Amino acid sequence: MLSEMDVIKFVDDIAEIQRVFDHVKAGYPLDRKKAEDIIRKHNASDPAIAAYNSPLLPGFVTFQQATDQMLLNNLNTIQAYLSAKMTGKSIDERTR
Fold first, then answer.
1. How far apart are CA 21 and CA 31, in angstroms?
2. pLDDT tens for residues 45-59?
3. What's CA 6's distance to the chain center, in Å?
4. Of 7, 4, 12, which Cα lies nearest the Cα of 86?
5. Which residues lie closer than 8 Å to 46 by C-beta, 6 or more apart?
6. Which of 43, 40, 19, 41 has the alpha carbon at shortest distance from 31?
7. What per-residue string of b and e applies to 39-69 under the rule 16 or more CB within 10 Å gives b?
8. How far is the C-alpha of 67 from the C-alpha of 71, rounded, in Å?
9. Which end of the chain is more exposed for a tag (fewer CB within 10 A), N or C?
10. Of 13, 71, 18, 21, which Cα lies nearest the Cα of 42?
11. Which of 25, 15, 6, 14 shows the shortest CA–CA distance to 82?
12. Are 43 and 50 in contact (CB under 8 A)?
């Protein structure tokens, strides 16, 4: 079962990414450092995200080479993955 702390962590991580999107949608430039920090954090903590961002994949670029849109796409993928992972764990636990 997802603990209260697990749910809080998922929600906090998803909200952190959403704040980056909201900032950009409000007309401000992307905070690249914040975006890179979020991506690095999830690369280090989740093997699936690390595999998605592997330097061995075709088309891999470094943070310095990445456009703002590439970073936003990466954050979008991480946010969707976290949402699905949280939902999947909840559904899995209810079917046991």
1. 10
2. 999 999 988 888 888
3. 16
4. 7
5. 81
6. 19
7. beebbeebeebeebbeeeeeeeeeeeebeee
8. 7
9. C
10. 13
11. 14
12. yes
Tell me the two tokens of residue 16.
């952190």
- The tally of CA atoms less than 13 A away on the side-chain side of residue 70 is 11
Amino acid at 8: I
pLDDT digits (tens, 9 = 90+) for 36-91: 999 999 999 999 999 988 888 888 899 999 999 999 999 999 999 999 988 877 65
- Going from the C-alpha of 94 to that of each of 10, 73, 74, 81, the distances in angstroms are 18, 32, 30, 20
Per the CB < 8 A criterion, the answer to whether 20 and 31 are in contact is yes
